[in-house]
Amino acid sequence: MEHDHANVKVSEQDLVGKVAIVTGASRGIGRGIAVHLASRGANIIGTCSVLSSLGKIDDLRAEIDSLYRNSNKSSVPQIKGVVAPLLEPREYCSAIVNAVKEYGSLNILVQNAAVVEVAPVGTITQDHIDRLLTANIEAPVFLVQALLLYFRPESRIINISSEGGRDPSPVALVYSGCKSAIESMTRVWADACGTRPGMERTTVNSVAVGITQTELASQMPDTPEIRQFLEAKKTACSVEKRLGRVDDIAEIVGFLSSEKSRWVSGNVICANGGTVKVL
């Protein structure tokens, strides 16, 4: 279940006039976040890595247009799709900055796009390391840096992490390390951006996501080991014995994107139903 379209409705319009970037917005958690922020009035710059995925952001735009038409709202958020190849950081940043220039400023950045690959210890290659570090460390670092001129005071930066950064899988050494790093960088960005001239009162947080029902999760091999793994995750959940849903994540990101989160910065919020506890 990627996103429950039937439950999407126009919400409180507290983000009207805001410009939000959601990287990796063509599917899964990124798409759900983009829909949620747009349902609250934010203009969305949604990225995808390849041209063939741009049509999915067109579909997102059509969904939002229909949502607002049916609600009789006079102002409909703009949804702009951008092809930004995550494994080419210079091109990635340039494409996103060019889209932001059309608005002139930026209020919300959700860094959701990532390369997810596994490799058991003993099989890790240089290419595997290079791909994950480029996509999951280098690209986010240079994107924030490229956008510093465009952020406004009281901006919001939300980095999507993973519970794997705290509870790593033996086949995800490099990926888990990248997610731990993004959480550490979140704390540095919080200090650096919160009092930066032109970005005063900006907050930076990370959301550590657990296993969530998305297209990516549904493509996991149907093996006894995978079934056992998923059942163990459901059993470990403190709230309800199920996997996470996209809306569970999107609403947490929505809170961190809002004025109501003004006193939360430099933190990691676990969005996993309690499967991995972080104190």
From TrEMBL:
It holds the Pfam family adh_short_C2. PROSITE patterns: ADH_SHORT (PS00061). One of its GO terms (molecular function) is oxidoreductase activity, acting on CH-OH group of donors. SUPFAM superfamilies: NAD(P)-binding Rossmann-fold domains. Coiled coil: none annotated. Belongs to the short-chain dehydrogenases/reductases (SDR) family. This is 3-oxoacyl-(Acyl-carrier-protein) reductase. It comes from the Eukaryota. Keywords: NADP, Oxidoreductase. The keyword Zinc-finger does not apply.
